Amino acid sequence: AVALGFAGAGIGLDPGQEGAGTSAGDVERAKQIALDLDLAGKVRFEQKTFGDLLADGTSERYSLIVFRNSLHHIYERNADRAIDLSVTEQCVKDLISLQRLLSDDGVLYILEATRAPFAVAKLSDLYRRSKGVGPIGWDDKRTKPEWIDLLRAAGFRSTVSANRPYNKWIGNPIIRSVGKRMSAQFTVAAR
Length: 191
What we know:
By secondary structure, this protein is of the alpha/beta class.
């Protein structure tokens, strides 16, 4: 967003924790890209989690906050209804807190994996196995309508949602339509 002129400055969160979802290599590549694009003074990386950012009481406000395939790790669906209700309640509380980090015209952009239909999930599992990666636990993923309900419960008034092809399949016209069932993006305008 900064490189293309959509934002004047940016912050990247590096959880700095084993298994936190962002590999050290990904963080280093992002830092190198910022250097290569001469954005070192406009982009900074802080070693903290989303929870740290919410808890630190910063008065800094952002015009764009992006979550890319991460919320389903923080607010994972659970088969135990009591646990799932607790996770859902925490998600809504955190999304309400998140609004104070957005500027008045700020936008929350979420790209999130959602539960796939049975046949699509099986195709995904085959594809992942061919790459030496285990299957996705689709039962742990919330549906797009569930995410929108959570966002509305947190007070986000405007939600726009659209499917996009799964990252690795964007350029393949034969399976692009299948890929569109694999990831969903939706943009939520606060206030």
